[in-house]
Amino acid sequence: MEPTTPHSIRRVVCARPSVKAERGENRRGLANSGLTPYASSVVTELHLLGFGLGFGLLSACASSAAPVSAPASNAPPATAPQASAQPAATEPSASDAIRSALAAEDRSPDDKALDAGRHPAEILGFFGIAPAAKVAELGAGGGYTTELVARVVGPHGAVYGQNSKFVLERFAEKPWSSRLAKPVMAKVVRLDREFDDPFPPEVKDLDAVIFVLVYHDTVWWKVDRAKMNRAVYTALKPGGVYGIVDHSAKAGAGVADVETLHRIEESVVVSEVESAGFRLAERATFLKNESDGRDWNASPRVAAEKRGTSDRFVLRFVKR
Fold first, then answer.
1. pTM to 2 decimals?
2. Which of 100, 197, 239, 242 has a CB 3.0–4.6 Å from the CB of 317, allowing a cystine?
3. How far is CA 239 from the centre of its chain?
4. Could you tell me which of 208, 164, 157, 211 has the C-alpha nearest to residue 187?
């Protein structure tokens, strides 16, 4: 933000009347007026009232005058006030911002092709992503969702994208770095950190942390998920949202299919996240697919034509 440049200032001189002189003149004038004592007292009060109003106005004038030069002092010069970081009054609604983000002409064809199966408008709306929000994504990968978040929160928001060393080395470094070079990603902060320690201390008071189709992977990557979820809890503001989307495993499967089918049982995620102190606020059903047998590999690298059709759960947790 550029500091403001001081404008030229001129001294405003306001004359202040003498209280004693004013009262003395009033008394002498009334004494020679021939008025009765009662009438004189009334006139005196009116004179004093007028004097008080004038004196108040002159005092205000004097207090508002700016000095021509700063007083001699050894104190360091004051810094210019920073521009407000508050969102402008013309911020679009969340729904309008999401629609605009999806319709942006500079989105890549590959990203747009994923929209039908990923349902990003519903996901971002359900998790409360809005202009000026502070949002982090765990397991950002190549940044498909992170870019949409950056478009929605706009210039008054903040976005953090986390990837672990394993994710970057395995598949994300090139697409992630390429995406971060886009102008729309200029304010996105890249976090190359492990999942169980995803945020530096200065990342705090977040409005939302989202985790899209990656939670199951943290199981076979041997992440300390209890520590990870506590770190998310700490980074969020009170009432902040922890939003998780993942491929659903069959009832009773637990974590048995996390590597072979890239699925996890919903109840496992709920239990682990609630153990960190979160409250499950709501489940969404827009990614449910009852026709999915949940017996095939949902990984995007092998799902082929089935990609985007798996039965998925969408959970919105809230920091208590």
1. 0.73
2. 242
3. 13
4. 157
